[in-house]
Amino acid sequence: MDKEKLEEELKKIWNETPHSNSENTKEASWEEFRSKAFASKKRMFKPWRYAAAAAVLLFVLIGTGIYFNNEPLSETHLVVAKNVIENQTSKIKYVVLPDSSKVELSPNAKIIYGDNFALNRKIEVDGLVYFKVTKDKQHPFQVFCNETTTTVLGTSFIVNETEDEKVTVELFEGSVQMNIKGQDQKWVLKPGEKFIYANQTASVEEFNRFIDFENEKLAVIGKYIEENYGYKVVIPQDYLNQKITIRINKKEDLKTIVQLISEMYNLNFEINENLKQITFQ
């Protein structure tokens, strides 16, 4: 490819990059690049020179946001090196983050976080996601959803963003602080409170974080575990109709519930993670 053709092709690629600045700025940037890569001095043709120019352009294209925009990165783009986890199944997806925090993604939910997450615990959310956060006072855990920010040290809560951009945060344990982009006001939630942000209006309400089983058959508890935790529960036939009265935190750790049933009925249990099955005997 001759010099004129190569120059034409490179400028075509250059102009296809995102318009983060004005056309005048892009044109000035191109002329500066062109003057260096295609100097008019007479010299022997060296193919490697144009290959190097193409390589420089490729580097510029990869880092377009930095090359065309010298302004500092916006605070809204907090996740740079992205790890994206999305639940494209019809069941809850369980994820353990690099800091050992646990996440449950409902169908169609998505989370995005950076490569240095253990030191910079910032995460973006789309959809319905439950968090059980590992305590780390030196590195606050922040969840960004639409225009809201949830800041925690160690707790369990649900963040949900619906298609109409309504954000709901329900707190089950611990404490969280809520912020809205562009506002100085802060909301600190207590367990059993939920924060709602819709149509640029924020409110805090109470919600029932427990589920009560009063004089229910043990088989009903087994079904509850299957539907909410995704584990099949096998209970001895003689115990299926045994009655139980119990209050459970809706986001209680599964093993805590299983141990409680085991102690109440003097049953042994086995949790098979491969089969996703709990067997009482």
What do these coordinates show?
It is globular and about 80 Å long. With 281 residues, the chain is α+β, with helices and mostly antiparallel strands. 26% of the residues lie in helices and 35% in strands. Mean pLDDT is 79; it is low at 40-80. Helix 1 packs parallel to helix 3 (47-62). The protein contains six helices and 19 strands. The chain folds into three domains: 3-68; 82-206, Jelly Rolls (Sandwich), CATH 2.60.120.1440; 210-280, 3-Layer(bab) Sandwich (Phage tail protein beta-alpha-beta fold). Residues 212-274 form the Protein FecR C-terminal domain. Residues 1-14 have a biased composition (Basic and acidic residues).
Radius of gyration: 28 Å
Query: What is the percentage of strand-forming residues?
Result: 25-35%
Tally of domains? 3
- Strand arrangement in the largest pleated sheet: 1-4-5-7-8-11-12
CATH architecture of the largest domain: Sandwich
Give me some keywords for this one.
Phage tail protein beta-alpha-beta fold; globular; seven-stranded antiparallel sheet; 281 residues; Jelly Rolls; alpha+beta; seven-stranded mixed sheet
Concise structural overview:
With 281 residues, the chain is of the alpha+beta class. The chain has 6 helices and 19 strands. The protein has 3 domains: 3-68; 82-206, Jelly Rolls, CATH 2.60.120.1440; 210-280, Phage tail protein beta-alpha-beta fold, CATH 3.55.50.
Task: Write the topology of this structure.
Blueprint: H1 3-15, H2 23-37, H3 47-62, H4 64-68, E1 82-86, E2 93-96, E3 102-105, E4 110-114, E5 122-126, E6 128-132, E7 141-145, E8 148-152, E9 156-161, E10 167-173, E11 176-180, E12 186-189, E13 193-198, E14 201-206, E15 210-217, H5 218-229, E16 232-234, E17 243-249, H6 254-265, E18 269-272, E19 277-280
Parallel strand pairs: 5-7, 16-19
Antiparallel strand pairs: 1-4, 2-3, 3-6, 4-5, 6-9, 7-8, 8-11, 9-10, 10-13, 11-12, 13-14, 15-17, 18-19
Helix pairs in contact: 1-3
